[in-house]
Amino acid sequence: LPEHFVTVRQDTGAGLGVVGSRYEVLQNRDAFAFLQDLIDRHDVVWESAGAVRDGRKVFICLRLPETVTIDAGGVADQIIPFVVALNSHDGSTLFHVVVTPWRPVCGNTERFALRDAVTRWGVRHTRSARDRIEEARRTLGLSVTYFDQFAAEEESLARTDLALADYRRGL
């Protein structure tokens, strides 16, 4: 097909997807290199990494330093926040970085991480992608503080007394 190309895995020679002429390969090492800055500046920890769909999609998951505990004296529900970077090599999605409560380990949890993201940043696989990744670095630094605010709000909600009868009257 004119103006279309096939992305290919270098290690196996397997075709990954058909892409257009503006598609620019964003290698995993380049796409994920900026994550080291989060580790250096914000005490974020490498958590998991993997490839799904025969290498068509690759993810790296970082754990944010603070676990959010809602109602520590009561239900003690813990939410572990993660920063997840997802790179596709088949032309199906953007390069994504999300803040999410899901730690990807397979295709299902990778989809859940995207679905339930509280902060999302993405860039198309084009020539300007590497420049835009610098923007992600700045944006994600702000996301680290999001969960501190989230924990305070959830704690307030957990400590609010609500009588079921009052709730039903409000409906």
Plain-language structure description:
23% of the residues are buried. It is built from five helices and nine strands, in the order ββααββββββαβαα. The mean pLDDT is 79. The strands form three sheets. It has a five-stranded antiparallel beta sheet with strand order 3-4-7-8-9, sandwiched between helices. Strands 1-2 form a two-stranded antiparallel sheet. A two-stranded antiparallel ribbon has the order 5-6. Helix 2 packs across helix 4 (129-158). It is of the alpha+beta class and 171 residues long. Strand 3 (45-52) and strand 4 form a beta hairpin. It has helices at 28-33, 35-42, 107-115, 129-158, 164-170; strands at residues 4-8, 15-20, 45-52, 57-63, 68-70, 77-79, 82-88, 95-100, 119-123. Helix content is 35%, strand content 29%. The chain starts with a strand and ends with a helix.
Quick overview of this protein structure:
By secondary structure, this protein is an alpha+beta fold. The protein has helices at residues 28-33, 35-42, 107-115, 129-158, 164-170; strands at residues 4-8, 15-20, 45-52, 57-63, 68-70, 77-79, 82-88, 95-100, 119-123.
Keywords:
29% strand; alpha+beta; 5-stranded antiparallel sheet; 171 residues; 35% helix; two-stranded antiparallel sheet; single chain; 5 helices
Q: Helices and strands, in N-to-C order? A: EEHHEEEEEEHEHH
Strand fraction equals: 25-35%
Mean pLDDT: 79
Instruction: Tell me the overall shape.
Output: elongated
